[in-house]
């Protein structure tokens, strides 16, 4: 890797770990010119990179948690809707005579239809 | 989110449509001894709602027939009489037109049985297929053509 950006990208993506990042930085800082330019910054960049990676992982975990919660909510609402819909499709009787249930009402209807005007 | 709206909508629909207005209007009538509203009854696979009204006596029965415009005749050639009604009980004819097409939006089918002093109404007859199925059911049960 020829640039710090590439090293950091590899680190953020999980391709390399912190020891590898530090090794790459040390190799990168090998030449005198680079060392003069980046040596003091390396001591800042690596801890910042670690902190940023950790924050990213915590955020991803948090998002995952919300996604799981949302999926569970959708599942519960879907199941609840399906159960409510299935119950709503069942025959029900509303009657002024409490003794007349669905069976009684259907028999009454059949008798009435059979003896229709 | 869509599922939540569907659940709320169904709950409201359940509350709103639990009893037909026809049942509510007639179940408290003095002429009616017993009223029953069957929701989601299936007739030959067709889902309909049914209201049954049993009159207190023959006088009350005839009054209901007149009010619901069911022509009464003991010698009526067709077993079962069909008219259209709005669910609120206000009569509105919706017989099949001459070309055989039926407009059934919001219509009901109604029949009466003197032996049972009963008027019965099939609600939610939404389309011609349901209409024909119910007619066939009644004709078959009542021994008609």
Plain-language structure description:
The complex is a heterodimer of chains A (117) and B (145). Chain A is mostly helical and 117 residues long. Chain A has one domain (4-91). Chain A is built from four helices and one strand. Chain A has helices at 4-12, 18-28, 32-89, 102-114, and one strand spanning 92-95. Chain B has one domain (19-141). In chain B, strands 1-2-4-3 form a four-stranded antiparallel beta sheet. In chain B, a hairpin with a 4-residue loop joins β3 and β4. Chain B starts with a helix and ends with a helix.
Main sheet: strand order of chain B: 1-2-4-3
Tell me the total number of β-strands of chain A.
1
Approximate strand percentage of chain A: under 5%
Mean pLDDT of chain B: 74
Helical residues, percent of chain B: 25-40%
Q: What's the story with the biggest beta sheet of chain B? A: 4 strands, antiparallel
Distance between termini of chain A? Answer: 95 Å
The largest β sheet of chain A comes out as: none
Structural category of chain A is mainly alpha
Structural domains of chain B: how many: 1
Distance from N terminus to C terminus of chain B (CA atoms, Å) equals 52 Å
Number of strands of chain B: 4
DSSP helix fraction of chain A: over 70%
Question: Please, how many domains of chain A?
Answer: 1
Strand proportion of chain B: 15-25%
Oligomeric form:
heterodimer
Main structural class of chain B = alpha+beta
Tally of individual helices of chain B: 4
Q: Give, in order, the helices and strands of chain A.
A: HHHEH
Q: Provide a count of the helices of chain A.
A: 4
Low-confidence stretches of chain A: none
């Amino acid at each position: 890797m020829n640039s710090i950006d590439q090293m950091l990208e590899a680190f953020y993506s999980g391709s390399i770990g912190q020891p590898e990042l530090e090794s790459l930085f040390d190799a990168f800082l090998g030449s005198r010119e680079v060392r003069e330019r980046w040596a003091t910054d390396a001591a800042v960049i690596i801890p910042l990179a670690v902190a940023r990676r950790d924050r990213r992982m915590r955020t991803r975990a948090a998002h995952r948690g919300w996604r799981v919660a949302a999926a569970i909510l959708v599942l519960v609402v879907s199941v609840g809707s399906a159960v409510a819909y299935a119950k709503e499709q069942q025959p029900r009787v509303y009657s002024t005579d409490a003794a007349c249930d669905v069976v009684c009402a259907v028999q009454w209807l059949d008798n009435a239809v059979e003896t229709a005007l | 989110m869509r599922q939540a709206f569907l659940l709320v909508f169904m709950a409201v629909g359940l509350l709103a449509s639990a009893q037909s207005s026809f049942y509510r209007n007639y179940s408290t009538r003095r002429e009616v001894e017993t009223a029953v509203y069957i929701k989601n009854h299936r007739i030959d696979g067709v889902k309909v709602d049914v209201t049954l009204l049993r009159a207190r006596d023959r006088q009350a029965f005839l009054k209901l027939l007149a009010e619901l415009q069911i022509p009464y005749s003991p010698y009526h050639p067709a077993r079962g009489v069909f008219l259209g009604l709005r669910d609120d009980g206000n009569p509105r004819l919706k017989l099949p037109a001459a070309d055989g097409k039926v407009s059934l939006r919001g219509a009901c089918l109604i029949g009466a049985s003197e032996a049972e002093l009963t008027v019965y109404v099939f609600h939610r007859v939404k389309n011609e297929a349901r209409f024909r199925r119910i007619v066939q059911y009644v004709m078959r049960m009542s021994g008609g053509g």
